[in-house]
Design a protein that fits this description.
By secondary structure, the chain is an all-alpha fold. It has 22 helices and two strands.
Length: 535
């Protein structure tokens, strides 16, 4: 089974940029300002820099194994089928739900003009019956785009990504240089020492809950297409790191510009209750108040292009995760088939059905983004763990990109992952724990029904994962973040998480597979990869 290597370096970078610049820029600045005030600028910086540590670990892994959807294969290679399935399960769930979230963002934003598409229940914007029909139609259109193969997808996304960068960049420039009375508001907030009106807890919670992390998590989409890249050893590291650096500047500028042009009246009840006319489409609402009608029109067009451009990437990535799960033997072989265009249509069809169902349990943009951010970061925590394990299991293997000081940087990346999940609070962490438990149940059930059973080594190599989630959940329950009891103060939690991270990181290395089993998994996966399989 082989993909066509047709994507160049620019296409990989555009895929990463396309994943990062979606609905996050349309909504994230409003919700971040509500939670952290002007300190939201710091939230974007913290989120971006944290992601760079994680991106560097993935750069080495994807350069070693340039296989599309390989994020689902790494844990199988190092810790067997149980860990591989559970972590890939969480990755798949988040990607599929992300497609729903991006479609939801478009419909909600356009609901300002087409009011029959949305309705408000208890103050939360939701789909009307017409809105569900529109969302279904948009989702079907995105699926059709993915059926044309990776070359078409890359070319289309490159054009879309240029648009997606130009529109927010133009917005930043216009908002920064326009003169309006609200600049005085920003000065007063600074002079009154209200740069952090909700303290550091607000800044850190904003990283996890308001779309900051969710936006930066899009860095991996370029790497996920590694199997279709002409020169993955060079292109993948450039894409994952370069896209984050560019977007730190872009999002930081957007947040500053957003705060700068806020009208005085919007802050009359404090940052937490920040509101203004048209805030369901934040930047469009501010542009309208400033009399920039042409920019309002451009932003409404972008409310379609940016989220749906990201949605196309998530559909492609989620399908390749399912396909790689099938390839590695932890999902039915049925989904390993590729079409004549080189697209995993069966996996795309499955994800289409699940994405439509994912509209139901979440209400509002922020609720779905808060869960997605933490779940994505949890699934990414496998990166630094797998990198350290593969250095132990395959020290002789050629590494086109070799991370220096890998033990230290891998641990920092893992610790950063834990911090970012922890900042979301227990309200999100318990949902993540339930998702993990459901994944374990699905695996055990399927293992009983399938002829290819997991071995004792597979189960032994997973023993570090469950105590890790149990103790992490308990610590979150007593934390000072949303949903916690407030017994663990901010500052002390950094120390507790540091200790927990060291223990888990150490155990994960001790409980990885032996070299023989690692090579067996790798040979089976790479042999499958080398055999063309078409439908």
């Amino acid at each position: 089974m082989t993909y066509k290597r047709e994507i160049g370096a620019f296409g990989v970078l555009c895929a990463s940029l396309g994943g990062i610049i979606g609905s996050g820029w349309l909504f994230g600045c409003l919700y971040a300002a509500q939670m952290a005030g002007p300190g939201a600028i710091l939230s974007w910086l913290i989120g971006g820099v944290s992601m760079i540590f994680l991106a560097l670990t993935f750069a080495e892994l994807f350069a070693m194994f340039p296989i599309s959807g390989a994020v689902g294969l790494f844990p199988v290679l190092t810790h067997g089928k149980v860990v591989g399935f559970i972590l890939t399960w969480i990755t798949w769930v988040t990607y599929v739900v992300s497609v729903s979230q991006e479609v939801q963002s478009t419909v909600f934003y356009l609901g300002n003009r087409y009011t029959s598409w949305v309705t408000k229940i208890n103050g939360i914007t939701q789909f009307s019956h017409t809105g569900y029909v529109v969302a279904f139609s948009i989702m079907f259109f995105l699926v059709c785009l993915n059926s044309f193969g990776s070359r078409f997808l890359s070319q289309a996304n490159s054009i879309i990504s240029i648009w997606k960068v130009l529109v927010p960049l133009t917005t930043v420039i216009i908002f920064l240089f326009i003169k309006n009375y609200s600049y005085e508001t920003y000065q007063l907030q600074w002079e009154a020492k209200k740069l952090l009106p909700t303290g550091m807890s607000g800044v850190l919670s904003a990283v996890a809950l308001t779309g900051v992390l969710y936006s930066f998590c899009g860095f991996q989409h370029g790497a996920l297409l590694a199997g279709e890249v002409k020169n993955p050893q060079r292109s993948v590291p450039i894409a994952v790191v370069g896209s984050i650096l560019l977007c730190i500047l872009l999002y930081g500028g957007l947040q500053f510009a957003f705060i700068k042009v806020l009208p005085l009246a919007s802050l009359s009840h404090g940052w937490h209750n920040l509101s203004f006319i048209g805030d369901s489409g934040p930047f469009a609402g501010l542009a309208a108040m400033l009399g920039l009608g042409w920019l309002v029109s451009v932003l409404f067009v972008d409310s379609v292009v940016s989220p749906l451009g990201t949605g196309v990437i998530y559909i492609a990535s989620s399908a390749r995760v399912v396909q790689s799960m099938s390839q590695s033997g932890i999902a039915p072989k049925f989904f390993a088939k590729l079409s004549s265009t080189g697209s995993p249509l069966r996996a795309i069809a499955l994800n289409f059905i699940i994405s439509m169902m994912a509209f139901m349990p979440f209400k509002g943009w922020q609720e779905i983004v808060a869960f997605l951010s933490s779940a994505l970061v949890f699934s990414f925590a496998v990166g630094p763990i797998c990198l350290a394990s593969l250095r132990k299991l395959q020290p002789e293997k050629r590494r086109p990109f070799r991370l220096p000081f890998f033990q230290v940087l891998s641990f920092i990346a893992f610790y950063v992952c834990n911090l970012m999940i922890f900042w979301a609070g227990f309200d999100v962490v318990w949902k993540l724990a339930v998702t993990l438990a459901v994944g374990l149940f699905v695996f055990v059930l399927s293992d009983l029904l399938e002829t290819r059973h997991a071995t004792k080594s597979d189960y032994f190599s997973s023993l570090w994962l469950f105590p890790y989630m149990i103790f992490f959940s308990l610590l979150s329950y007593y934390s000072s973040y949303p949903g916690g009891l407030g017994y663990v103060s901010i500052g002390a939690d950094f120390i507790y998480l540091f200790v927990l991270s060291i223990i888990v990181f150490f155990l994960s290395q001790k409980m990885c597979l032996c070299r023989r089993e690692n090579r067996q998994h790798m040979e089976r996966i790479l042999n499958l990869k080398s055999k063309p399989d078409r439908v």
